[in-house]
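Bug #77: duplicate submission created two jobs. Keeping one. Sequence:
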Amino acid sequence: MANRSYLYSADSLPDEAGIPQRIRCVSEHNWDIPLAHKLLVGRGTAIVPSMIWSPPIGIAADYADGSALLRDLLHVVGEGLEGDDEFTECVTRTTAHLEQQRAKFFVLETGEIVSMTDDDPAASVRRLVAVNIPDAVAEAEAAIAGQNDDWLASVRADWQKHFASFYSETLYFSFPD
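Kept job's structure:
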């Protein structure tokens, strides 16, 4: 079984009292937290209690702003991939699913990924929120502004790794309505 990062949407955030009433499945990605997930939780980012695991290793963020950031980056990535039907289909499928699962917040569940090392999972999530996610956002913002051509070229060269996650209404960890 692959370890995955799981991305959900909800209109409220998990807290010590429990999880949101309605949780929508957005995406899962094997063996990593991909660039797309980092960007989607890149605006208004906060650590929240996990909806799946005990430690505080959930990451929440603003849905609308995170979605806009990813769409903007996909647009500039696509400018160098004209004629790549697979990329075009990936973008179409991703953006349609994000629109369908729209809510107030994204909630990224990182437990399986941060548990793959001997590091403390909570410390790994704090590092993600303090360093890795802001770095990914800064790189993307610079690329969108036309100031990060080398990074953008590397993302284009390996776009499947960054953007071709499994988007579905049902993930390995799904929540009843």
